[in-house]
Amino acid sequence: MTDLANISTPRLILRPWRDSDLPEFAAMNADPEVMAYFPRTYDRAESEGQVARIRNHFAAYGFGFWAVEAPGAAPFVGFTGLWTTSFEAPFTPCLEIGWRLARRFWGRGYATEAALASLGVGFGTLGRDEIVSFAVAANGRSRRVMERIGMSRDAAGDFDHPAMPDGDPRRRHVLYRLSRADWIRSTETRGL
Ligand SMILES: CC(C)(COP(=O)(O)OP(=O)(O)OC[C@H]1O[C@@H](n2cnc3c(N)ncnc32)[C@H](O)[C@@H]1OP(=O)(O)O)[C@@H](O)C(=O)NCCC(=O)NCCS
Question: In terms of pTM, does the model score above 0.85?
Fold first, then answer.
């Protein structure tokens, strides 16, 4: 059985959170460019709250948003992982895949590499039948990660994210899905 606490990829380690990740995590959550598609930036106390929620998710389910380390580059570049979606929508309950990296680590393929490993956990170790992801329609970078890892947009699945205020154009989200069968096919194509 895969060790759900520490997952290695060619360039990354997906691992449990350390208290020493907090300054970098808080800095990325305070970066308006990183948080452009979230309701607002978060301060240090809110970032600490997020880490607590992530740790609680790991305690409850054994998986979650892993802290991502890039050995030789940085001890913490952001997070990627699997989440039990906590709001109500037509497609919930479901298992979601998500990512957030500090700006200086964009453009290296880290999110895609970490996401592919997370899919391996979701479909392989956890044996799930479907994993979804969603983003503000204008969040092209996140949508490209979804497409690179083999997800397909469900055009009928567009929805209003309850965390975004009414009237905010970022409230409208697009939904992507990946079935276990399509994941198996895409791993064969990738030769994994
Ligand atoms: C979404 C997010 C994680 C995507 O980061 P990203 O760096 O664009 O995505 P990846 O890590 O997969 O990297 C892909 C890029 O790296 C490049 N790249 C370089 N080396 C690569 C490699 N070895 N393998 C794959 N891609 C590589 C790709 O060409 C691509 O570049 P491009 O953006 O110019 O097309 C990042 O933009 C982010 O943290 N955004 C803020 C938070 C957010 O919006 N989260 C999602 C909410 S739904």
Answer: yes
